[in-house]
Write a structure and sequence with these properties.
Jelly Rolls, Arc Repressor Mutant, subunit A, about 240 residues, about 20% strand, alpha+beta, globular
């Protein structure tokens, strides 16, 4: 069972590799399994900006993202918020409930119209024990998530603001997961981008304008990220 490979895997010092040509294949179709398996689950639709779950709420289920984008964030006691991840179709989240978390450690919010499958904790535990192929796929997802977290840390430690912003935009555009050379990114404010990258809104605005002038991104109501933006991340 192969884990889905992040198109922006880092090598030394957080420098990403250019993804190989062709689409990655996953022999196990999670969505088909969830549709056909005899399990207790609920499909839930969220409007843009709707709360999927809040930090401090009971951790009693796992979610599978069918369609849309979900933002994961954590808030400090002083009220300062940090964006942890932006998730897309095919991602699981809320899996901390399986590791003994009694309450949610962060907040999940829909960034666009989003559809998720909500699986109760006990039901998720049951199918992980009984369905080997699904269990393998879930483990592969968790390993890929851990790699992504390590890459994000290296990115923050060693890369410039410009590279961090370019990488964040490519990840949100699901670079390497689709065949199109230009991909639409969910509408995200520059304040949120600044939180994700660890900089100020004015710096984000400066680099967004630079990317647009260079033809690396386009936005006129919607934001499109071109594959050529990868050159910013790869450039030393």
């Amino acid at each position: 069972m192969r884990a889905p490979v992040d198109a922006l895997h880092n090598t030394e010092m957080g420098t990403p590799r250019r993804p190989a040509s062709g689409k990655l294949s996953d022999p196990f179709d999670v969505q088909a399994f969830l549709d056909s398996a005899n399990l207790s689950r609920r499909v839930v639709h969220f409007a843009r900006g709707a709360l999927v779950f809040a930090q401090g709420a009971p951790a009693d289920s796992v979610f599978y993202l069918q369609k849309g984008v979900v933002r994961l964030s954590v808030s400090s006691a002083a009220g300062k918020e940090a964006v942890v991840a932006m998730l897309g179709p095919g991602d699981f989240f809320g899996e901390g409930s399986l590791a003994g978390q009694l309450i949610r450690m962060g907040t999940a919010r829909a960034m666009v119209a989003t559809t998720v499958v909500r699986i109760p904790k006990r039901e998720m535990q049951r199918i992980l024990h009984e369905q080997v192929a699904f269990s393998d796929r879930f483990i592969a997802h968790m390993l890929a998530r851990n790699i992504r977290i390590e890459e994000d840390l290296v990115d923050q430690l060693f890369n410039s603001t410009e590279k961090r912003l370019a990488r964040a935009l490519l990840l949100m555009a699901r670079h390497g997961h689709q065949e199109e050379s230009a991909r639409e990114v969910p509408r995200v404010s520059q304040e949120i981008l600044a939180e994700m990258v660890g900089t100020t809104r004015s710096r984000v605005n400066f680099f967004m304008n630079k990317f647009r002038k260079l033809g690396l991104i386009d936005y006129n109501g919607t934001l499109q990220v071109n594959d050529s933006l990868l050159n910013v991340v790869l450039h030393d």
